[in-house]
Amino acid sequence: MSDKKVAIADSRSGVSPREDDMRLELLPAIVKSLERDGYEVVVVIDDDLLVRIEESEHADVLRNVTIEHVPSQANSAELLLDLAYEADATVVSNDSFEEYQSRYPWILQRRIPYRVFQGEVYLDPEELMGVF
User: Fold this and answer.
1) Would you tell me how many other CB atoms lie within 10 Å of the CB of residue 75?
2) For 5-125, CATH number?
């Protein structure tokens, strides 16, 4: 990785087909927002979503990112947090990782939640103040 700031985008499995469809639509917007903010992007992704993205109109989103594959039986949250720790990276996720905070106490300072409004991803929810 370069000297750029690094962000790890959380694209872990949804639990329903609707959530999987949402992941397919959100991931490109999250990646574009991170790149626009000057981040080198790493995406933690499972096989199913990777194949779905490669087969969609969003395939170009994978061109400039590093992909970290989540093995089928792996704990994807731990994998994501271990990668973030090793890379001194920011984690972009709406998961609070509450059950991991004792093992990864830095997550409270290095996690960026996001919000989606009218098809745009906002990495700083305060950017939405005054929009409504």
Assistant:
1) 12
2) 3.40.50.11980
